[in-house]
Amino acid sequence: MRYHSHRIAKYLYFAVDEGHYRDDLAEWQRNTLYKLTDALEHLHLLIGTIAAYLREAGVTDYFLRARTRA
Fold first, then answer.
1. Residue 70 has pLDDT above 70, yes or no
2. Is-contact 7 39, C-beta < 8 A?
3. 18 with 28: CB under 8 angstroms?
4. Residue 2 and residue 66: Cα distance in Å, rounded?
């Protein structure tokens, strides 16, 4: 979990920081979206890791699904 949390923060920081070094708007958009996509992928992995941990701890699928809709 720590690994994915660190990666999410790192890619979000890089996405925000990208604007300091780019004069070309199209290049800035492309690079920023790549970094945001990387952050999103690690967020999905983090969510999956947490769900797997909870399932291993005996939490039912019904409970997990009910909590994601709230």
1. no
2. yes
3. yes
4. 26
Spell out the SS3 assignment of 40-65. Answer: HHHHHHHHHHHHHHHHHCCCCHHHHH
67 vs 24: CA distance, rounded Å: 43
**Residue whose C-alpha is closest to residue 38's, from 58, 1, 9:** 9
Residues 25-62: pLDDT tens digits?
888 888 889 999 999 999 999 999 998 999 999 988 88
Model confidence, pTM: 0.74
Sequence letter at residue 18: E
- If we measure between CA atoms, which residue out of 37, 15, 47 comes closest to residue 55? 47
Q: Return phi, psi of residue 23, to 5°.
A: -100, -25
Match 């004069």 to its residue by tokens: 23
